[in-house]
Amino acid sequence: MGTPWQEFSTDTVVASLRARRWSEYGSETLSEMHVDPLAGDGFRASMRRCNLGPLGFVVIDSSPARASSRAVEAGPWATNGSDYLMMTVADYGKSTLAQSGWSADLNAGDIVIRDLAKPWESMTSNNMGLVLIKIPFSLAAKYHADPERLVGRHLPASDPRVAFASTVIRASKDALQAVPDAAWTDHLSDVLAGVFRLICHDDFGEDVVAHSSTANSLRRSATALIARHLHDPDLTVCAVADTLGVTPRHLQRAFLDAGISPRQFILEERLAEAARLLSVSRDDTRILDIAFSVGFNDASHFTKSFNQKFGCSPRVYRSRRSS
């Protein structure tokens, strides 16, 4: 199928409007943000972005500027919900990224993870490039029991494991830009998810972010629990609330703050995982086995829900992905 890029460049905008247009495009892609160029009307920047399965892949080049965000949720592009982490890889140049209680000076190949549900600030006094991967919190929770602990860890390229991870990410950028229509690019989401899983180990960096007791943190705790038990057909809203020591009503309110009920969230996660498995499964793998493996216990409910979500049956979906 290939991976189509969406592109924006300030070169197509008159100098007086460049910062405003860049702020608007960045707000949609990352989270609400404001840009202050450090070179006046000489500001130049470009962004290319594409969807890779559940991930958003973003390439940024910018002249000296300061960008800041006071948002408490991710921008609408490449999202299913509003709760996302952002893996930031320094491609070239130097920049500083800061967020509530931590700051990281990034050199080429360094990696740091920011939280798009919290304000942040980025600054560079020279030309720089970044590769950004927008990661659903629910996906992060599959690879780490407490993804919030990953936020703010400065992972330097001097560590061979980090160098490997950043090399794979930057090579993915080069490959996507060189041959965006190649069918194999559809599998890059699994490759990049594997890289994220690699850096989730607790011996990578030090914890720098303290937890809060907000509804957002309750929702994230529930998200992590759901990710670990998605295969369990007995996973219910009441079971999640009981495990976390809150009432179902309390849990309901925490999710509704993000525009979705916990019951619908569980269903959406199961359907997304089923779609992923269908896209990589062999033709002789029974679709019913895939449905059962992600927690469905009723074939007709699975088929109906899948059709409503993706506009086709599971069998047709698999045939399209393999064609």
TrEMBL record:
Keywords: DNA-binding, Transcription, Transcription regulation
InterPro entries referenced in this protein's UniProt entry, alphabetically: AraC-bd_2, AraC_XylS_family_regulators, Homeodomain-like_sf, HTH_AraC, HTH_AraC-typ_CS, Tscrpt_reg_AraC-type_HTH
Name of one Pfam family that matches: AraC_binding_2
Residue ranges occupied by any HTH araC/xylS-type domain in the UniProt entry: 220-320
Gene3D superfamilies: Homeodomain-like
Single Gene Ontology MF annotation: sequence-specific DNA binding
Full protein name: Helix-turn-helix domain-containing protein
Source organism of this protein record: Croceibacterium xixiisoli
